[in-house]
Amino acid sequence: MRLSFIAPRPKPFLSLFSKMWVIFIALMSLFMIIFNFYIVIEMSSFKNGVVDLTKEREMLEQKIDEDDATIGLILRQKALSEEIFSNNTLLKESMKNLFDLVPDQITLKKVQMERNSLILYGISPTQDTFNFLLAAPLKSIFHTSNTNFYLTKEGWYNFVSINKIIGEDGLGE
Question: Is the residue at 2 inside a domain?
Answer without folding.
Answer: no
